[in-house]
Input
Amino acid sequence: MNATTVPPASPDAVPAEQAVAAVLQPLARLMIDQGLQHAQVSEILKAVLVQESVAQYALDERGVSDTRVALLTGVHRKDVKRLRAVQQTRNSRAKQGISVPSAVIARWISEPRFLNIDQSPRALAKSPKSGTLGEPDFPTLVAEISRDVSARAVLDELLRLGAVKILPQGQVALVDQAFVPQGSPAEQLEFLAASVGDHLSAAVHNVNPRRSSAAMLDQSAFSQDLSAEQVAALQQHARKLWAGVLQKFLSSATLAEQRSQSAANHTHRVRFGVYFFEQDQGALPDAASASKPVQRTKGRGRKT
Output
């Protein structure tokens, strides 16, 4: 077998191959959009395969040998040795803490002291001097998250990201409760990696044949045969639903974080999200639409 020959898949592996191909389609678009070519992504894939096999598939406390990694992944043993020595850091599972701006917004939209009667985020005074006695202000909010970063620096960053605005009265107002970075392309890609990576990790966990723990939440609903106007209305409805759910979840999460500070084991993290996707199926290539018949079902859902 030469280096370019790929062995035929066993019948049992075909569903997995089809699933991987479906997941890779949007990744292929990301690659092309970002100027990544096959050679670069191939190297990234080899590095991640090696890292995951070392991290997740050790047989005992001795770890995983280069030979076992090569058998698990199909990566040549010379490449395995090289990649392990270099200690590649491309793995998106690297531990990362939540940023101060993100934490500030999370507290802002979930803590009752920073909310109006209708549960919308208050506009906050830029400083205690410019505010009303007894009313919370922006520096107080930031100080509750971190005393290592100044309120001015956090405000400048949130303004740069387009997450807040300064009102004519001089108050700081939140523009959007959902903190999705609108800054540099690198920041947007970082958000994509964290959000999509965790969602995919939950889905992979649920289909893991070695899984011994409970399935993670992974639910979605779909509808089709809609007009463009109906899709736009549903997207607005979904955003409103998410805003309410986000606020309730962050309130619970903030309380949990406060309680965990006195606990011995508080090393876990969670992510809870939602997404909305729409596609014009009438614009799909004929070959794609003819590959298999479309079942016309409305309002269907899937859950795990």
Observations:
- The chain has four domains: 1-91, 100-174, 185-216, 219-280+290-304.
- The first strand starts at residue 124 and ends at 125.
